[in-house]
Amino acid sequence: MNTLRIGLISVSDRASNGIYQDLGLPALEEWLTQALDTPFELEKRLVPDEQSMIEETICELVDERFCHLVLTTGGTGPARRDVTPDATLAVADREMPGFGEQMRQISLNFVPTAILSRQVGVIRKQSLILNLPGQPKAIKETLEGLKDEQGNTRVHGIFASVPYCIQLLDGPYIETHSSVVAAFRPKSARRDTNN
Ligand SMILES: Nc1ncnc2c1ncn2[C@@H]1O[C@H](COP(=O)(O)OP(=O)(O)OP(=O)(O)O)[C@@H](O)[C@H]1O
Ligand SMILES: Nc1nc2c(c(=O)[nH]1)N[C@H]1C(S)=C(S)[C@@H](COP(=O)(O)O)O[C@H]1N2
Q: Which residues does the UniProt record annotate as the domain MoaB/Mog (predicted)?
């Protein structure tokens, strides 16, 4: 009954106005499909960089669609119209500062401009909400981390911590494909699985 529900929000003026094709939602969906062993349902939204619209969309996905996880992409930088973190904080019950800190740290392994992202992680009701940068490649980089040529993890992505966080919020028990990203939980929180 407690199916994992994930909200995806692509925040982009140009994609939402049809100036270019949105690559954010497909990149998010593709990564989740590869990473998750647990079945999930998606709610997908494409919105412009308007704070009120981003806030409304997050609230709709959390309060009416009962998403356990909401991932945004885009609008986290310093430009005037980059307001995704501001919208996310405005509707948050609690901030989870470790996610923002860790995402920037991970991204520094890929781009020196990682520091320009103001991305945050927050909790609203039952839902964990995470901001990812707008470059479609940043989605995989941030969620999965860095691997060496043999596929061994060099830097853990933040998704390693997401299943346990959602478990602590009384959400479903999420299992991942460890070849993509291994979910970390304390032993006492693990179910009888191969983790
Ligand atoms: N949804 C998207 N689809 C495809 N490419 C994107 C998308 N969002 C961002 N990008 C790419 O990543 C870059 C950085 O993303 P950012 O969120 O800063 O967008 P932006 O420059 O404010 O433009 P816009 O909001 O119009 O997408 C963009 O300039 C664009 O090249
Ligand atoms: N992993 C990762 N993080 C990244 C990037 C990236 O390409 N990969 N781009 C950086 C850049 S150039 C900017 S300006 C900020 C904010 O991007 P956004 O406005 O598209 O959200 O994210 C940064 N973080």
A: 7-153
For residue 67, what is the domain's CATH number? 3.40.980.10
pLDDT of the residue at 193 = 59
Task: Please give the Cα distance from 6 to 73 (Å, whole number).
Answer: 14
The reply to whether the predicted model has a pTM over 0.90 is yes
> How high is the pLDDT of residue 141?
98
Per-residue confidence at 195, pLDDT binned at 50, 70, 90? very low
How many independent structural domains does the chain possess? 1
Question: What ipTM was predicted for this assembly?
Answer: 0.96
Report residue 88 as tokens. 């996310």
Pocket residues for ligand 1 (CB within 6 Å)? 10, 12-15, 20, 22-24, 49, 74-75, 77, 79, 134-136
Alpha helices, DSSP H, located in 17-155: 24-35, 51-59, 84-90, 97-107, 136-144
The residue segments making up the domain with residue 58 are 4-139
The reply to whether 165 falls in a domain is: no
pLDDT computed for residue 194 by the predictor:
53
